[in-house]
Amino acid sequence: MNIEQIYTGCLAQGAYYIVSQNEAAIIDPLRETKPYMDRLEKDGVKLKYIFETHFHADFVSGHLDLSKKTGAPIVYGPTAEPNFDAIIAEDGQVFQIGDIKIKVLHTPGHTMESSTYLLIDEAGKETAIFSGDTLFLGDVGRPDLAQKAAHMTQEELAGILYESLQTKIIPLADDITVYPAHGAGSACGKNMQKETVDTLGNQKKTNYALNQPNKESFVKEVLDGLTAPPKYFGMNVALNKGGYESFENIMEKGNKPLKVKEFEAIAADFDALLLDTRDAAEFQKGFIPNSINIGLKGDFAPWVGSMIVDVQQPILLISDKGSEEEVITRLSRVGFDHVLGFLEGGFETWKNSGKETDEVNRISAEDFASKYTETAKVIDVRKETEYAAEHVNDAFSKPLSEVNDWAGTLDDQEHFFIHCAGGYRSMIAASILNSRGIRNFTEVEGGFNAIKETTVPKSNFMCQSKTLKS
């Protein structure tokens, strides 16, 4: 038997490839199937089952394409109602793969179909659980995503999750290995550890959610501090449940080089969003007017999902040469399938053609310190928890995830400084503000990581009473 965790850092997502004898199973695959197909061919094994722990919200799974290519059936836990052929397993049902077994443990709460898969090895020993979004390392799955579909409150779902953990997970042996669907950085939880594999016994000791004295306490602690989920989550659930276009078709349609005139014409005809995926430092020096910067070298796909409200949005790319396939792949993982092409030669081609360009006013942290006064208006786009830990005195806490709400409250007659932790998120915000005609600001290079090394005064509490002028 061999278990391989295939971890994708930009999504903080773990898929699992399991082989016993000449048969294999894959749990929660990513959308692009070629890596799995290559692995199956290399190992000379047949894919027997594709297991899905639930209808994922934060990424589009590869279950449908993988099933079509291999003939392997898709397996969901009890109550799942996909719009395609699948095995809807019963609680406790056992599936044989070579000399091992996988037992279905129905663990609703994150979603009602959520299931944990218990692996039983060749000797009949319960060895590992693939816990999906039921149990993370250091946390549990957020119980607020399935409210509408389940016709329940988040409190009711949290209570169901508590019962699932108490009756199905905690009774298992301490030496069982926990393989979760996500790690630190995923929006599917709030308190995940950076590790991606652990023992259940250690989680029983260290995971706050497994150490609550009763259901009421569990519900309170699990719901405390939950922020609104990214807007694309519901659309990804719909794709995973209802079906989607094949990844190969998406790549073929999107991976098209466009001359400047073609690029301009398509942008106008389709009202396409211009997505510039270069590093913030490059974008700042020059970009196509009204383009939005979300750098590929960062949490690219989750931020695309958070900033672009509709997965149906037509997109044109301005990317570093040779990165186009990766960009399209990472967009497709979160359901953005409508890439219409990319600017051949990237931004340099646009600039060399004599077309209008724009830029962001960016200064160093040292320059910011020299310009800072007690009356300076500073906007901090980090998460509220980052802001609470330490921030510039009297800065406004305005998380990037909420920019579509707070951007409209800004007074463009009043200059402000804007920063995040290192410059990635603040450049996203800067590009969005620029595209909306808000230009009277200065972005701080290096963000708070650089500012904290200067003499700018800082605080470590929330200034919840501060509001932006409208």
What does this structure look like?
By secondary structure, this protein is of the alpha/beta class. It contains 18 helices and 24 strands. The strands form five sheets. A six-stranded mixed sheet has the order 1-2-3-4-5-6, covered by helices on one side. Strands 7-8-9-10-11-12 form a six-stranded mixed sheet. The protein has a five-stranded parallel sheet with strand order 13-17-16-14-15. α4 packs across α6. It is globular.
Superfamily at the CATH H level of the largest domain? Ribonuclease Z/Hydroxyacylglutathione hydrolase-like
- State the share of residues found in helices, binned by percent: 25-40%
**Structural class designation:** alpha/beta
Characterize the largest beta sheet: strand count, sense, and whether it forms a barrel: 6 strands, mixed
Distance between the termini: 62 Å
Beta-strand proportion? 15-25%
Total domain modules: 3
In the CATH classification, which architecture of the largest domain applies? 4-Layer Sandwich
> What low-confidence regions span 5 or more consecutive residues with pLDDT below 50?
none
Q: Name the CATH class of the largest domain.
A: Alpha Beta
CATH topology call of the largest domain: Metallo-beta-lactamase, Chain A
Shape annotation: globular
In round numbers, the mean pLDDT is: 95
Number of helices: 18
What's the total number of strands?
24
Radius of gyration: 24 Å
Give the spatial strand order of the biggest sheet.
1-2-3-4-5-6
